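Q: My labmate handed me this sequence with no annotations at all. I'd like to see what the chain might look like in three dimensions before we decide whether it's worth expressing. Could you predict it?
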Amino acid sequence: MNVGLLSIVLLCAAIVIGFVRKVNIGLVALLFALALSKYAGIPEKTVIQGFNVNLFITLMGLTLLFSILKTNGTIDIMAKKIVSLAGNNKYLIPVMVYLVGFILTTIGPGAIPMLAIMPAFSIPIAIAKGYNPVMLALIGSFGIFSGRMSTITPEGILVYNLLSSQGIDITQAIKPMYMNMIITGIVLYIIAFIYYKGFSVKILREDNDKEQEQKLNKQQFLSLVGLIVMVILVIFGKWNAGLTSFAVSAVLLTLKAGGEKESVGGIPWGTLLMISGVSSMMGMVVETGGIKTLTTALAAIMTPNTSPAIMGATAGIMSWFSSGLGVVFPTLIPTVTNVAQVVGNVNPIELASMVVIGGTVTGVSPLSTTGALIIAMMLALDEKVGKFDNMKLFIELFAWSVVALVVLVILALLGVYKIFL
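A: Here is what I predict for the chain of 421 residues:
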């Protein structure tokens, strides 16, 4: 069997075995990564290099910070205060969450820092108002996706520069690129809302006046200030979310805003192991040419009618194994002009839209920062959301990334993404 194809089979097998046998998927993935390296004669250091240090630091830093906020009660009060802003408009909360994600992303910071922050806010709000926490976390993410292609976001600047270098008029590309992302985000919002029955949200007991007037104590006030500082530095100062969270956590623990033992114990170590182990296996998929095997097979069946859908699917599949902003966009965007010429009767701007959307919507996968943080926050608030199977949630979020790609393919085949060309 082709080694690249074998790597894909082993990755899928690790997920299936972990889910069926209730074993940490990351451990099984590490087992298969090591076995594959020996079989293919690949140095062990390649397996280690596949360990996503940046993602690990981001997850550990953020979950430590929010573990502090959870143990001292800050998150509970924040949720009540934020939800109270909606007054009696309980059913507008999903819309508000979507718009917050969209607006804050499109004004400049881009998707990456916002995706790291959104689950920590949307999940407690969902718990406070009786919504499914996964639904509200997804809706917030879809809002972020929608605002990603603003001309002042990091990804917008990168993509438009890549298109410009191919001789494409950017003034003609901005509107379709931006609007296509919005269309996709709204469609996914509607699907998630219907699937999780957001229209039949459980009505919880309304907070009484005493709860509404609850004030922050010293520890909670310091924690809230620390959180605000972290958000500002990450979004506007473009600081690393994980390292900044560690720094703020150190200050808060030094000031006794939380207990170190309880806060460190609140980090979901099993989830970090699961994600990091799968990341190492994905590194082997890249090394053995597994991605090339997939993309080559898809490209071989392109026609003028199917090429946008196939390009989007290819970007989405690549994004499961690599960064959209760091790998998928700079790898595939430069090919759109040539692909359009070879296939014929295809607009390269539409193909570029497909790359961006496909490389974005899979962000809800638990193998990406967004999906991983959704799982981490669900674990951090376990007693609030009720006991759940984290491996089942792992599969559920991965399934959502597949659903997002299916939606992309259907919309592309229906010609929806041609509307604003």
